[in-house]
Amino acid sequence: MVRAICAEPANIIRDIPQQVEYITVYTQYRKPRSTVEKAVYGEGPYLCPYVIRFQDSTALTIPEKQMKKVIKRLKRIPVEQIEFVGFELEHIGNMLDDIGAQRASATVAGYGLHDYAKRDTPVYYYRRK
């Protein structure tokens, strides 16, 4: 007997906890490194998720182990191809204007360290439908 295994595409995320109301996806450009990546996404750099922040209804960040699973699953997929089931894209902003990115930059500067983050990339804001 032969059984077919149907794996869900990596760009579709269904298993998001119920308490999550908002998702913020910070992006950065990635150069394809392998021949498979180059064949699928092209030769040039493309935007992919760098950090994904889950937030509750009061906009407080929810530290979930699941976030690590999601970012690992999505880190090589172009952000335009990602679908969070049960969420809709509210708007696309810029990291320079994002409060969370500004706080992170201030924290790094407070420690006297150099901030290597690229702050001129888009930020995708999702909310639960």
Question: What's the SSE blueprint?
Answer:
Elements: E1 12-13, E2 22-30, H1 35-41, E3 46-55, H2 65-74, E4 83-84, E5 87-94, H3 99-110, E6 122-128
Parallel strand pairs: 1-4
Antiparallel strand pairs: 2-3, 2-6, 5-6
Describe this structure in words.
The protein is α+β, with helices and mostly antiparallel strands and 129 residues long. It is built from three helices and six strands, in the order ββαβαββαβ. The strands form two sheets. It has a four-stranded antiparallel beta sheet with strand order 3-2-6-5. Strands 1-4 form a two-stranded parallel ribbon. The chain starts with 11 loop residues before the first strand and ends with a strand. The N terminus is likely disordered.
- The number of strands is 6
Contiguous runs where pLDDT drops below 50 for at least 5 residues: 1-7
Radius of gyration: 16 Å
Helicity level, as a percent range? 10-25%
pLDDT averaged over residues: 83
Tell me what portion of residues adopts beta-strand conformation.
25-35%
Rough outline: globular
* Number of alpha- plus pi-helical segments: 3
The strands making up the biggest β-sheet line up spatially as 3-2-6-5
Order of helices and strands: EEHEHEEHE
Q: Main β-sheet: number of strands, strand sense, barrel status?
A: 4 strands, antiparallel
Roughly how many Å apart are the termini?
42 Å
Structural class determined from secondary elements: alpha+beta
